[in-house]
Amino acid sequence: MTETLSSSLDVAAVRLRFSSLRDFALLDAPGGTQVPDEVGEAIARALREASANLGAGYATSRRVGEILEEAERKAARFLGCGPHEVIFGANMTSLDFTLTRTAGRGFRPGDEILVSSADHDGGVAPWLELAHDRDLVVRHIELLDDTTLDFADLERKLGPRTRVVAFAWASNAVGTVADARRVCQLAHEAGALAWIDAVHYAAHEPIDVREVGADVLLCSPYKFCGPHMGMAYGRAEVIEGWRPYKARPAPTTPLGRRFETGTQPYELLAGFNATIDYLDSIGGFEAIVPYERALGQRFLDGISGAVTVYGLPGMAGRVPTFLVNVAGVAAPDVAARLAEAQIGVWAHDSWYSLNLYQRLGYADKSVRIGFIHYNSTGEVDRLIEALETVRKA
What we know:
This protein is 39% helix and 14% strand. The protein has 14 helices and 13 strands. The longest helix has 21 residues, at 59-79. The relative contact order is 0.17.
């Protein structure tokens, strides 16, 4: 029977496009998604047919130019911006270090950066390092007890020296979603830049950078069934005034390319193009969002009181990512037992969200469960049953 739940997503057909999705239930999407076969094939084809650099008149050079231009167009559609506002890089963290350093050229000692206490350290450490080098101040926006952003604290901390408000749109640990439009509006009212880490959000919800008012937004295609690379949006009116770190003869147009260092991984960009085609072919986020939310609700409805879920109690205000512990069983033991049952999850302490970790209250480690659109209701049910088995063993 075709599995659709409350969306038009044909999950059985989707799963046939992934060689990696067989008997093992991969429920660690926050750590990186699986890749459909067509994406790997596009990467291999580019390596065979388009290994070159830009600017030459021969065929392989023309092909890499076509791959890059297509990637800029598709990224722009994914993000809701212009192709000239797209920036590619090795990964989100590398891009964030590059762009924070670039933006920071104009900052002065004593200027302030606000970061969210829910953030992955990939969105915090670049600012901390810049603050160390430029004598800036980094301040954390507090969270409410349910892990949502404390807007009263944000408003208290905004001031005339605030240059940037940086925040994660969705927590990679507990799945809580921030009200990005409200954060961006408050940042702009204070004369600050709105800087969004959308790495986890981009896998589960559609993005429109203009609608929320972002100045900079970063994400990672390997979180939404693409290759390992980084992708960023920079609002043209902001980044056109930045002086980039780059080799002097390198291109300065289109605008976004001036912030890309060295030769781009054109084979991965070809894989990214195939990723966007794949997402389009399954119905895009219109099909993905309701299906994933139904998976998350099925999990919450099925677990017993022995499973503690940190953060928000329901699906409202979150993506289908859950941080849990099982009463009486250490998190590493839970993960190991689930692996024996052919269910892939992970046990960790901070999940790279250092300030959030301090607030959650578990003693050592927790188990992270992350559903994505290729997961099935059967896998959710297997997980619930396995958690009960682990508890009773």
